[in-house]
Write a structure and sequence with these properties.
heterodimer, A: about 280 residues, about 25% strand, B: about 65% helix, globular
Chain lengths: ~280, ~170
């Protein structure tokens, strides 16, 4: 079959040659981006190009959410209000208790001469789009370096750890979720204090390298241990869902589900910690 | 049946219509998809691009495909060049097969497009693999059949040149 160039005596290069040229350019840019990470300017430029369109596209969605929120039934709102009031009273009591505990903790830490846990600043961000990438679990957030976000910062929702920032542009940032197959989070079992490494599997989480006799069972809660200096200590990470101890294998297979609503949460919090020096995924 | 010359078959659509449809496709892609919708979501941008590459090959070619591919890379936060290369390969295949495609009825053309969409996914997959990731098999290839159906609808609406039913 002839090449798809229409004039009889074509003066441009043939389709095959053009394919070769564009393939070469693509390979060049892939290598520059993946191996040397040197196309940040181009990335920032293209991301800003997408930004206005993204804003326009979000507009009807946001308006729909606003309108449906406005039209919510009065009765439902009363019920909500009552339960929130009850919750508020209970929380207030607990908060009071926490203030007490905090003071006590500060005293004890002073006695131990330990470094006080610094308060971490946060910024609220919203998920704009979720990437359909067979290689990873990623999403784009609507805040970027202008809001103080930097690569490596942890991202949480109301329940627990969702992931970390992979790249930050001026007005948006890429979030890589804990369920991403390339992610590993150091954690510990709340019940026993046992230190474990939690890996993403794409759809859930998995604890690897635990001997089959390890004391870990269904329902155990895993919290981040903070030894990687990426995630602060004590964030709820996962709940053990299934433990298989195959007789043919010295290691137990421990499957977990994330505690945070990784796939469903739209409003998230980015913890503005100081990024560590290592290169981020 | 006498096949008309492809110059006469080429649509006369101008840049305005083409860019408007591409921006619309990009906007659809930028909507906050999630769950099954995300898994089954066809690549609107690629499909509109393929339609124009077939209908208006003298305007829409590999250069435009490459640039749009870069935008898709940014949108998904993947390595730059992954979708760019995939889109270039897709447009090349459509243009290579263009005259042959027009001799088929529309649903046979859609089957060709289905295979092209699969090939584009394979190309992006291989690129992602080379750039150092391991894929999740269950996410793959669900969008290609949906995309082929969408292509059929769009091609029908945009009066894609095709053979009559008697030829098929």
């Amino acid at each position: 079959m002839a090449a798809p160039v229409h004039p009889l005596f074509a003066r441009s290069i043939g389709a095959g040659a053009r394919l070769a040229v564009w393939t070469a350019v693509s390979i060049l840019i892939i290598v520059l981006d993946a191996r040397f990470n040197s196309l940040l300017m181009l990335r920032n430029g293209l991301a800003s190009l997408l930004r206005p369109l993204q804003t326009v596209v979000r507009l009807p969605v946001d308006v729909a959410v606003e309108v449906s929120g406005f039209l919510v039934r009065h009765r439902a709102m009363q019920v909500d209000n009552a339960s929130l009031r009850a919750l508020h009273v209970r929380d207030a009591a607990e908060l009071h208790q926490m203030a007490d505990l905090q003071a006590e903790n500060a005293q004890l830490r002073g006695l131990l001469d330990a470094r006080a846990k610094s308060k971490i600043r946060t910024v609220a961000a919203e998920i704009w789009t979720v990437a359909r990438d067979p290689f990873s679990r990623r999403a784009v957030l609507n805040k970027g370096t202008r809001a103080g976000i930097a690569p490596g910062q942890p991202v949480v929702d109301a329940q627990g750890l969702v992931g970390q920032i992979a790249r930050a542009y001026p007005f948006s940032s890429d979030l890589i979720m804990v369920t991403d197959p390339d992610q590993a989070v150091p954690a510990y079992v709340q019940r026993t204090g046992r230190r474990v490494l939690v890996f993403g599997t794409g759809y859930g989480l998995e604890v690897r390298y635990q001997p089959s006799v390890a004391d870990i069972r269904r329902g155990d809660v895993l919290l981040t241990s903070g030894i990687d200096h990426v995630y602060p200590e004590g964030l709820p990470l996962a709940r053990v869902n299934q433990v298989v101890r195959p007789s043919s294998d010295p290691y137990a297979k421990v499957y977990c589900l994330p505690i945070a609503n990784v796939e469903g949460s739209r409003m998230l919090m980015v913890l503005l910690t100081k990024p560590v020096g290592a290169r981020m995924p | 049946m006498n096949v008309q010359s492809s110059v006469a078959l080429e649509s006369q659509a101008g840049w305005g219509v083409i860019l408007a449809s591409l921006v619309l496709a990009l906007a659809l892609k930028l909507l906050p998809w999630s769950g099954w919708g995300l898994t089954l979501r066809p690549d609107f941008l690629l499909i509109v691009l393929l339609i124009w590459a077939q209908k208006r090959p003298s305007l829409v070619g590999m250069a435009l495909a490459w640039c749009l591919g870069l935008l898709a890379d940014i949108q998904d936060g993947v390595v730059l060049g992954q979708y760019a290369l995939g889109y270039v390969v897709g447009v090349y295949l459509v243009q290579y097969l263009q005259r042959r495609l027009m001799q088929f009825a529309l649903h046979f053309q859609a089957m060709h497009v289905f295979v092209i969409l699969l090939l584009v996914e394979v190309v992006t997959l291989v690129v992602g693999w080379i750039s150092g990731k391991s894929p999740q098999i269950h996410m793959m290839f669900a969008a290609a059949p949906v995309g082929a159906v969408l292509w059929y609808g769009l091609a029908y609406l945009s009066r894609m040149p095709a053979a009559g039913k008697n030829l098929a």
